[in-house]
Design goal:
Helices cover 42% and strands 19% of the residues. It has five helices and eleven strands.
Length: 277
């Protein structure tokens, strides 16, 4: 009996040691497994942590842009909009006088220019009174300058210097606009472009520096603006122009012209390239 009990005790001990060994082996395997999983995920988790730090400001940009651009609507399809004059003049190109005379005749509610000289000096002009002779003389003196030229035909807002183009989005960044936006007008004395700059673009520029001239953001502006709006932005710090919806305008005499709706047909003496009307 005593020998049988001893064998049973030894058998139980062997089972216990075997179970302990198996348990230890499993613990070691599990430990190695989880260590491998940790090593496998460490770099992605670390990168994800860094990405999360950048996602939050990007989300804030997205929310800000969404809130601001939800205010804008392009004119409804088929709606006729009154067009101002918007021209981009490369350096060394002269604007034909008949074009300026026709523009001044049909768009007499203000004029302005923005751009830079051959030496890189910034050129900014805003005037309420449109004088074709004065405009011609000014542009003749700036043939070597790259300029954007705007002559206003009033749709919204009063005729005054506040509604003349260009508009300052932020120091060193300016905008001219040809077309019409449907957006909340909190002060009827000011134009839709004034509201676009003061209520949408300027707040965005203050919160997110360099956003306004980012190529992707310019594509967003183009999509929101639709086919009835053309915009030119001038970054004076870099002496660089950005034309939004350039494909809608026309190329004529070395110039880009946003629309011909204001222009007398007889002043065009050569074929046009583009689709603006």
């Amino acid at each position: 009996m005593r020998g049988r009990a001893l064998r049973q005790k030894q058998s139980r001990l062997r089972c216990f040691y075997a179970a302990a060994f198996i348990a230890a082996l499993h613990i070691n395997i599990a430990n190695q497994y989880f260590l491998g999983i940790y090593n496998l995920l460490y770099i992605p988790l670390k990168l994800f942590g860094r990405l999360a730090m950048t996602i939050q400001p990007l989300r804030r940009v997205h929310e800000t842009v969404g809130q601001q651009f939800s205010l804008i609507q392009a004119p409804a399809a088929g709606r006729t909009t009154t067009m101002c004059v918007l021209i981009h003049k490369p350096a060394g190109v002269a604007v034909p006088e008949p074009i300026l005379q026709s523009a001044a005749l049909h768009n007499a509610d203000g004029w302005g220019v923005m751009g830079h000289t051959a030496d890189g000096d910034t050129v900014l002009e805003r005037h309420v009174d449109v004088d074709a002779t004065r405009t011609i003389d000014f542009l003749r003196a700036h043939t070597d300058s790259e300029l954007a030229i705007h002559l206003r035909r009033r749709t919204h807002g009063d005729v005054n210097a506040c509604n003349a183009h260009p508009f300052e989005i932020e120091p060193g960044l300016y905008l001219m606009h040809n077309g019409s936006f449907t957006l909340p007008i909190r002060d009827p004395a000011y134009s839709d472009t004034w509201h676009l700059v003061h209520d949408i673009l300027r707040p965005l520029a203050r919160r997110h520096r360099d956003l306004i001239t980012d190529p992707t953001f310019l594509q967003l502006i183009s999509a929101v603006a639709g086919p009835d709006n053309r915009l030119i932005l001038f970054d004076a710090r870099r002496s660089k122009f950005h034309v939004v919806n350039r494909q809608i305008g026309v190329d004529h005499a070395g110039l880009w012209i946003g629309s011909l709706r204001w222009l007398d047909a007889e002043v065009i003496d050569e074929p046009l390239v583009g689709c603006a009307a």
